[in-house]
Design goal:
Elements (H helix, E strand, L loop, with lengths): L4 E4 L3 H13 L3 E4 L3 H10 L3 E7 L4 H11 L8 E4 L2 H9 L8 E3 L5 H14 L4 H5 L12 H4 L2 E5 L8 H14 L5 E5 L7 H4 L8 H11 L5 H4 L1 E2 L5 E4 L12 H11 L5 E5 L6 H9 L2 E6 L3 H17 L5 E6 L7 H8 L3 E5 L5 H7 L4 H4 L4 H15 L12 H6 L12
Parallel strand pairs: 1-2, 1-3, 3-4, 4-5, 6-10, 6-11, 7-9, 7-10, 11-12, 12-13
Antiparallel strand pairs: 8-9
Helix pairs in contact: 1-5, 2-3, 8-18, 12-13
Bound molecules: adenosine-5'-diphosphate and magnesium ion (MG).
């Protein structure tokens, strides 16, 4: 049974706008006012794929409704409007439940339609329906998690350690050799040179697009703004000029990166070396943080500092070191001990190969496919693929867990 109906518990005016959008997309939008309404609806119809709840106006009613969505064998994802303040707290905990999603007011009905659509695609065939025989299907349904791409950021607070080189070449290798769909994001709004090192001049940036969007009222996703490189990677640049980045609201950027995971298998983010607000929200969303470290004291010191910051941010278990220019007889286990991070791979020093490839506007993966350093990069990618979904971002609790400290479905036991 297709999950094409959406239960909506929003105020009437918002319901009108949102249901019009959903109807246009071919979904049945059903208004529910009370938890009883929802209960009746859920027993009557098995095709409710998503419920839009209002966690801002009537929290008690919303908790009751949320419980109903997860009662017995049901597991219907909620798309919930929450106060901006609450959303901050939830993502600070880094524990957003994978199936549920959150948004804040003001929002556009059209953006909700897009999110509902994505949620319906992910939730298409729930495992319990297959087990209980409601849906007969020949092939196994992929789980929600196997659909969601991974956010991998490449970061070290020191410059020149190989962040951009690794981001560009890992993206190319995953796309070209591993047949993955990859979005490569240049989040370095100050010294970023991802696009130029791939020979892409004057690409449309997120700052450009969002400035236009503010006039037209149309919101574009990252996949729409990104430019395709010849190697198949979608390349996205945040801003061309470091002076005009006010429009890049950190949360909006992070939300857009998260949304891109529905379209891409990997979102690889090259970062500017700082601990500012933009980087902090992206850290929170990352499944893995690759930390290139060259075997020299300044780079090692910077990595130790990062480890300490990561402990404070509660993201230490997402860190993975990549020892770059690792051909000076340096012992990886010594580096691991000193830096206090496990090493995911080693990349040897490749002379001028990376520079030569960049001068030709290509990744070294395409330009020098037979070189040993590309084997190193392939090993790194194989390990990224083998350890995908192992990040701490995946061990989240549900909505109730965040607010009450446990998966308690009894609304009367909620936190006040
Ligand atoms: N393994 C390597 N072998 C040879 N040159 C490298 C290697 N890694 C990085 N480089 C070179 O080092 C310079 C700095 O690398 P880059 O990726 O720009 O560092 P970051 O982004 O951390 O500032 C670049 O010229 C790059 O080509
Ligand atoms: Mg760089």
């Amino acid at each position: 049974m297709p999950r094409s109906a959406v239960a909506i518990a929003l105020p009437p005016a918002e319901f009108a706008a949102v249901s019009a959008q959903l109807a246009e997309a071919g979904y049945d939008a059903i208004y529910v006012e009370t938890a009883e309404d929802l209960e009746v609806l859920l027993t009557k119809r098995r095709d409710i794929g998503v419920a839009i709840l209002d966690g801002e106006n009537d929290f008690d009613r919303t908790l009751e409704m949320y419980s109903l969505l997860h009662e017995e064998d049901r597991n219907i994802p909620a798309l919930m409007v929450v106060a901006a303040r609450a959303l901050d707290r939830m993502s600070l905990a880094g524990k957003a439940r994978v199936n549920d999603e959150y948004f804040t007011r003001p929002y556009s009905a059209e953006s909700l339609r897009w999110r509902v659509e994505a949620m319906l695609i992910r939730a298409e065939i729930p495992a319990e329906d297959i087990r209980s025989g409601i849906i007969q299907t020949g092939s196994a349904a992929p789980t929600a998690d196997s659909h969601r791409g991974q956010i991998v950021i490449v970061f070290n607070p020191k410059g020149g350690v190989g962040k951009t080189t690794i981001a560009v070449n890992v993206a190319a290798l995953l796309q070209v050799r591993k047949a993955q769909r990859v979005l490569l994001v240049d989040c370095d709004t100050v010294t970023g040179h991802v696009a130029s090192s791939l020979g892409m001049e004057n690409v449309r940036t997120v700052a450009d697009a969002w400035t236009e969007d503010a006039d037209t009222g149309v919101t574009e996703s990252f996949s729409e703004i990104a430019s395709p490189h010849l190697n198949g990677v979608s390349v996205l640049v945040m801003a061309e000029s470091p002076l005009h980045t006010e429009i890049l609201d950190p949360r909006r950027v992070a939300d857009a990166i998260t949304a891109a995971c529905l379209v891409y298998d990997w979102v690889i983010v090259d970062m500017h070396p700082d601990y500012g607000p933009l980087n902090q929200v992206i850290f929170e969303r990352a499944d893995k943080i690759i930390v290139p470290v060259t075997p020299d004291v300044p780079a090692i010191r910077a990595a130790v500092q990062l480890r300490e910051v990561a402990v404070e941010l509660g993201i230490r278990d997402r860190l993975a070191m990549v020892v770059n220019r690792a051909n000076s007889g340096v012992s990886v286990s010594d580096m691991e001990r000193t830096v206090g991070m496990p090493a995911l791979a080693e990349i040897r020093s490749a002379g001028m190969l990376f520079v030569r490839a960049a001068n030709e506007g290509r990744s070294a993966v395409e330009r020098f496919p037979k070189e040993k350093v590309i084997e190193d990069l392939e090993t790194l990618c194989d390990r990224m693929m083998a350890t995908r979904d192992s990040g701490a971002a995946k061990s989240g609790q549900g909505f109730l867990g965040i607010f009450s400290g446990g998966r308690n479905t009894n609304p009367s036991m909620r936190a006040s």
